[in-house]
Amino acid sequence: MTFARNPAAYERLRHVSPDSRETQIAHIHHSLAATQWWSADRLRQLQNLRLTRLIGLAQRHVPFYAGKLEGLIDAIDGSVIPAAWATLPLLTKAQIRSDGARLRSQNLPSDTRLFATKTSGSTGVPLELVQTAEFWDNFYATKLRLLTWHSVDLRHKTIEILPPRGAPRADPVRRLPAGESPFNAIFDSGPYLRVSIFTAIEWQLELLVREAPQYLLTQPSNLRLLLRELRRSGRRIPSLRLVRTQAGQLDPDLRTECREVLGVPLVDVYGATEAGYIAFQCPKYDHYHVQSELNLVEVLGDDGRPCQPGQTGRIVVTPLFANVMPLFRYDLGDYAEVGPPCDCGRGLPVLRRIFGRQTELLTLPSGEKRFSTFGSRIFTKIPSVAQFQIAKAPRPPPPPPRPPGAWARPGRRRRGPPSFRFPPPAPPPLRHRIKYWQTLRRGRCCLLS
Questions:
Q1: Cα–Cα distance between 245 and 259 in angstroms, integer?
Q2: Under the phi-then-psi rule, with left for phi > 0, alpha for psi from -120 to 50, and beta for the rest, what region is 441?
Q3: pLDDT digits (tens, 9 = 90+) for 405-427
Q4: Residue 229 in contact with residue 207, Cβ under 8 Å?
Q5: Which residues contact residue 409 at a Cβ distance below 8 angstroms, ignoring those fewer than 6 apart?
Q6: What is the pTM of this model?
Q7: What CATH number does residue 233 fall under?
């Protein structure tokens, strides 16, 4: 719901302090409504200004970057030098874990509001982060852009099925009668239910049917289980208008299945606790727009150079509002395919597809690496299969080399090994083995390369 569609939102803002959080979010969102239509060059200029400011803060106040950021800023025009920026080493999760204290600013104003947070720890030990109110104000303004792009009406009911926030609760459902903060202070907001994703799928579906929400937010893997249960039970959720997914790799076939089973579109979001919203779905197409006002995003190939449209590389992000804990060129471990400029008119860069982490790469017997998306629905056609997981066994070590002449037999002309005489087809076939289990452990299942 935009401000234009809800004049009462403006009236509410007149009765709150100009320095309030809600007013700041509204002002940032108003700015985002304009910058989305800027050209790519103009957006890069805005990023350069914010990046220059962040580099200056880090040079003066963050011990980790002492002496590491020299030569990045042009002495004449004060902008970041692209060639120098490209030589800055990538920041890893291991460095954040080991040098977290040195990554924090040592000279903050006394009135700075700080927020401590942790990542989900999907790749190991969670990262401990510190962020400012400015970071979160921009986060929520960008979220408001997402809701505006996809015409979400906050007056209707939303059910969120995600991992629980904070300490464990006895009740798996938390009801917010007037929507989620801070939007409930700006807009007329309907009920908002937060549900633990660790509850049984059958129970989740029963709740959705009973509560009849207009909007559903969950992870892609959980949505697939819900769709499977809907097919099995024959039940429907006619009130639903839109499904949003986040925090997981979205296989392309899930959009199709969502429309087939629920009759509604699916909108996917890509982000990280360390950076906030990184990219989310275009209002016109299925591809993603990078949120350039919030993050500087690079997609780099194996040679460290920026990928061109159609190429896939690792995602490297620099949060532009991480003032208290700057993360320059942070390697998230995820991969994406770069897309061409979008004809929707927005100058925001395009990611055609977003893949999983490096641990979700599939290594073929030839040594070639491919992303391990599994788009087949073959298992959904077997009534006795409720869930399935795919794992690749560790690659066996190569056999020891044979001494020269080992393939030759007495009295015969020496020949090469049979495996060399008949090259395998491309791509090489994979041997597979199926195991049946009564239950599968919930959580991330990675393909090991």
A1: 14
A2: beta
A3: 554 445 444 444 444 343 333 44
A4: no
A5: none
A6: 0.79
A7: 3.40.50.12780
Q: Which H, E and C letters describe 301-367, residue by residue?
A: CCCCCECCCCCEEEEEEEECCCCCCCCCCEEEEEEEEECCCCCCCCCCCEEEEEEEEHHHEEECCCC
Q: Is residue 445 part of a domain?
A: no
- pLDDT tens digit sequence for 215-243: 999 999 999 999 999 999 999 999 999 99
Placement of tokens 């970057």 in the chain: 65
CB distance 313 to 355 below 8 Å: no
CA atoms within 13 A on the CB side of 46: 20
Domain encompassing residue 70: 7-290+343-348
Number of domains in the chain: 1
Residue pair 89/47 in contact by the 8 Å Cβ criterion? no
Residue 48 lies in a domain: yes
**Angle, alpha carbons 234-251-391 (nearest 5°):** 100
Cα–Cα distance, 428 to 364 (Å, whole number): 7
210: in domain? yes
Whole-number Å distance between alpha carbons of 302 and 307: 9
pLDDT in tens, 260-316: 999 999 999 999 999 999 999 999 999 999 999 999 999 999 999 999 999 999 999
Interval 250-265 mean pLDDT: 94
What local confidence, expressed as pLDDT, does residue 12 receive?
57
Specify if 400 maps to a domain.
Answer: no
Comparing CA positions, the residue from 331, 330, 322 lying closest to residue 57 is 322
